[in-house]
Hints:
Radius of gyration: 15 Å
Order of helices and strands: EEHHEEHEHEH
CATH superfamily: Leucine Aminopeptidase, subunit E, domain 1
Largest sheet: 6 strands, mixed
Structural class: alpha/beta
Distance between the termini: 14 Å
Number of helices: 5
Shape: globular
Strand order of the largest sheet: 1-6-5-2-4-3
CATH class: Alpha Beta
Number of strands: 6
Helix content: 25-40%
CATH topology: Leucine Aminopeptidase, subunit E, domain 1
Amino acid sequence: MRISTELGDITRVDADAIVNASNSSLLGGGGVDGAIHAAAGPRLLEACRELRRTSLPGGLPVGDAVATPGFDLPARWVIHTVGPNRHAGETDPALLASCFARSLDVAAELGARSVAFPAVSAGVYGWAPDDVASVAVRAVRAWSAAPGADDVEDVRFVLFGEPLLAAFTRALAEG
């Protein structure tokens, strides 16, 4: 698996799947979540409402992931994951690592060969960029070493600011 970092707008990435740093409601929000909902168009919200109506009536749990079509995005799929919120006392790095691993599980189930991640939980959820980067890179590397993980060939961390890019580039170089 190739793992890389880049500065950019995840809503414009040419990948099979992009990961949305969602909230548990799946109904849109701020930051990456709001940008993805806006760029994907109103059918994304409709698909998320359908998930809430059917398979996820209580919302998506922290650390889990679920997919919808990408609709108006370049990506074929959006994989929604809910990161832990430090401000709400969710400080377990295993929950954060689960966001990346479960997103890759879903990507593999979909047949996605390329996946783009944002810095899940590094924004309004209060996690330090260096902590998110370290956990994310370790989780992706651990997932890629598991049997049957060769389906996903390319993982890109697409980051919206220089501090996040620097943190992820450092984490990638350290391992």
